[in-house]
Amino acid sequence: MGVDIALFSAGGSIRKHFGPVAVEKGSVVVDNSSAFRMEEGIPLVIPEVNPEAMEGIKVGTGKGALIANPNCSTIICLMAATPLHKHAKNSVYLSVICKSLSLVKGDTNGCWYISSSQCGAGAAAMEELELQIREVLEGKPPTCNVFKQQYAFNLFSHNAPILSNGYNEEEMKLVKETRKIWNDMNVKVTATCIRGPVMRAHAESVNLQFKKPIDEYTAKDILKSAPGVVVNDDRASNHFPTPLEVSNKDDVAVGRIRRDVSQDGYKGLDIFVCGDQIRKGAALIAIQIAEMLL
């Protein structure tokens, strides 16, 4: 085949067919879909988090392999959560995530809340959001072709299929992928996913519970030294990360770093995380993985 590394970002059926074909021909495939993420033996990789998962994979040897990118929400959240997890070890991991067309994951106990952007829903949804905003402001009924309900000035449950356990597929990606990436089937993750009217970049409010104490000052120092993470935590001016500020940026921004007052001692933290789901949540990760293989 003559291709050392193949970056796949096509439709699911195309990836499912041509991914194994490329591997059979000796290419290392980096796949940016959910097609192979949870398959046994296929590493699910965030370069700053678990590069060791790619050990043994070499390019140019004629031996192909497949590496999967995680879901964009998982990437952005774990970029911030993993350095803290490595320091204090999570016994329970809960988060609130906001993506661009907003996907919100969470519940009243501080579970994953994800707000997903229209960008995560595709160009058609972004265009329809702009149209709906104009229509609503002009007093017209909004056009609802992409989704069945208005999303301008609104939030609604993510449109992924609902499973028998009451979670939808998008929520379960976060649960399963976190456990695989951390190589810990016992870490507790829960999620609720809602869409909201943000064009681009995810904003995630994350609640973490730990086995070991960790105060907010230690957490801030850890995050400041974490690769791919910038800390924006200015309480005096009430300036913290926003989806707008991280759009078209490579780094994940973290702020609102504080002790969880619902937990005894210093075994719980709340943080707010924003990241561009197209760059860090997809394209950049694939390039980083390819660079690590060279």
Automatic annotation (TrEMBL):
**Residues annotated as signal peptide:** none
Q: Name one GO biological process term.
A: amino acid biosynthetic process
**Domain Semialdehyde dehydrogenase NAD-binding span(s) in chain numbering:** 2-55
The highest taxon in the source lineage is: Eukaryota
**Per its record, what are the GO molecular function terms?**
NAD binding; oxidoreductase activity, acting on the aldehyde or oxo group of donors, NAD or NADP as acceptor; protein dimerization activity
State the Pfam families in the record: Semialdhyde_dh, Semialdhyde_dhC
Q: Which InterPro entries match?
A: Semialdehyde_DH_NAD-bd, Semialdhyde_DH_dimer_dom
Q: Which residues form the Semialdehyde dehydrogenase dimerisation domain?
A: 119-280
What protein is this chain from? Aspartate-semialdehyde dehydrogenase
What species is given as this protein's source? Populus tomentosa
